[in-house]
Design goal:
With about 400 residues, the chain is mainly alpha-helical.
Length: about 400
Amino acid sequence: MKSAADEAPSSAREQRSVTLGGVFLMATSAIGPGFLTQTALFTAIFGADFAFAILASVVVDIAVQANVWRVLGVTRMRGQELASALVPGLGLAVAVLVGLGGLAFNIGNVAGCGLGLNVFGMPTAWGAFLSGIGAVVLLWRPKAGRALDVFAKTLAAVKILLTACVMVWTHPDYAAAARALVMPSRVAFLPIVTLVGGTVGGYITFAGVHRLLDAGIGGPGAARRLGRAAITGIVITALMRMLLFLAVLGVVGRGGVIDRGNPAASAFRLGAGEWGYHLFGVVLWAAAMSSVVGCSYTSLSFFRTGDTVRRGSGVAVALFIGVSLAIYLAIGRPVGLLVAAGALNGLILPVTLGVVLLAARRRDLLGEYRHPWPLAAAGWAAWAVSAVAGVRAVIEAVGAAGAGK
């Protein structure tokens, strides 16, 4: 993990490549094992109506990311630095909050690595351990940022293409999904806040823009580029979400019963047989591995200042991944944790987004740049939705837990 000065892009072509790498880092961080689990589980529960939750979450996601990427990019400040500039000491609180949310996600991420390789006969614990070592090596090596860009782009393409193959095989009811997209028969808040939390909550909000800041991309002149990049990342994530939703919908529509213990795996197996199950192993490992890398890189970036990396950052990466692995091996059964982690990061979102939107009004932080008021208004609307949905989701989750006793 190097400083911005060590790898600042020197040409327009390199800037485009690094920007695209940041986009895919954000998208692949979001498309982890929790993403697969949440999407498959909620599709099995809500059927075609889940399409509306996907659309609603995408609208909120765009409003969130466009604001965050623009404000952080223009100020050239990471999330914790912006929070401290707004209120002294707030940066540390935000860093701890995001770090805890990232750790919750990373437990499921390392578990997903093991489960993905287990499809091919490797013991789950060994699969998780070896994947964790691979993530540490990737982030510890010289010029880690550029390797990270290539890694993110490659795994994103693998996940999207393989999921699209399974979707075509399952023959979902596209018309029912299209109707439910705008006219659902029922609306639940838990799926919406969980999707938002899993896509732009916690550390994921900052994954791509922190990568770009580390590469030296930012300033008022980069505002529009950053806004477009943020939206592109959300569109890529939404594409993967919709493909997976349709694949599972095809299985459910044919009367397939999804295993709640491993919903995504059972959907791939029921939809495309044993070859589909092996494809799922590849998709799951790719999703988990990219999320381990993205989560570790971004969560630890909240404990850095300026353009320098603290001594021992490689040790910090190893420790973060090691703790995640140890907790997974102690707890096991990560499905419930993955859904809960999405909801937890959805509750973190109002805090971090609120910091960014308040900072967008500070001329001493933004200089000559003027944040577009329609974008700020959309951001505050997204903040209100995320706050209300977060409270409602907690109520629904508590009610469901009480009914299950």
